[in-house]
Amino acid sequence: MYNYNLILTYKNKDDINIYQKEFLQCFNLDEYNYEIIKKKMNNLYSKVNDIFSEAIEIIKKNNNFTFKLDNRDYFQLLFSWENLEKTHIILNQYFNKKKFKKI
């Protein structure tokens, strides 16, 4: 599943290698495998899509893509360098039953 208890440090060090490593650790992986990550993200999306629906709508409204994406694709964007830290905090709070704000 997803390791929502991992403490992310990649932004503190501004290091893409640390981001990549921590991204994999979030999904309990040692190496990048698109098919496994996609399956895990789809599984995660099915559990939490309601708390990210507003964020996904904002991304959809403001995207400049020339191709069509579905909500699962937009959900994957929440795991980019810019967004992973905030997404991870929300997932941690959600799965640990703490109060959280929708994004």
Largest sheet report: none
How would you classify the quaternary structure? single chain
Number of helices: 5
Task: Quickly count the domains.
Answer: 1
- Assign a percent range to the helix content: 55-70%
Uncertain ranges = none
Distance between termini? 22 Å
The best one-word shape is globular
Question: Which properties best describe this structure?
Answer:
103 residues, 64% helix, mainly alpha, globular
Which helices and strands occur, and which strands form pairs?
Layout (H helix, E strand, L loop, with lengths): L9 H4 L2 H11 L7 H29 L8 H7 L3 H15 L8
Helix pairs in contact: 3-4
What would you say this structure looks like, in words?
With 103 residues, the chain is mainly α. The chain has one domain. The chain is 64% helix and 0% strand. It has five helices and no strands. The protein has helices spanning 10-13, 16-26, 34-62, 71-77, 81-95. It is globular. The two termini are 22 Å apart.
